[in-house]
Amino acid sequence: MSEEIINKVSQSGLVEFNLEEYYPQGERVLLDIKDKLFQGLILKEKDFREFVKGEDWSRYQNKFTAITCSADAIVPTWAYMLLTTALAPYASFVVFGNLETMETVLFEKALMNIDITKYKDQRVVIKGCSQVPVPISAYVEITRILRPLVQSIMYGEPCSTVPLYKKAKSV
Prior knowledge:
By secondary structure, the protein is of the alpha/beta class. Helix 4 links the parallel strand 5 and strand 6. The chain has two domains: about 70 residues, no CATH class; about 60 residues, no CATH class. The protein is built from four helices and seven strands; from the N terminus they run E-E-H-E-H-E-H-E-H-E-E. The protein has a four-stranded mixed beta sheet, with helices on one face. The chain is about 25% helix and about 20% strand.
């Protein structure tokens, strides 16, 4: 008298969207120029250019690199641009900001390239738990992208979801 076990989740018609699949693999590094400032306050152009010219940029090879200055100093825009020209041949990606900003930009870039047509009129669950750091901004962005197309959006796991959006029924 054994009863057949029915997987109701697989029969629900829910489509899972896993942001973890869009996580770019690679080392993340932060290049903070605060130590390159004179007395921690001023960027001297000559000294900074010597630093850029003399640095071994190959150590950033294939790394996602965020450039910033954590000191409370005024750094001219050209300084970050100069760093980018030195990093670009080596780094996988360069962004201005901290590591969190970089994750946001990397996910936005990845989500811009997805084929969203396969989610048209689907009931989508945006997977909540992941093994990699997915910024909240990525959840916001995929919700914004999917909302005009899908029948509904939920968050969590297919067996336990939080409803977020349901398309109004046409009359």
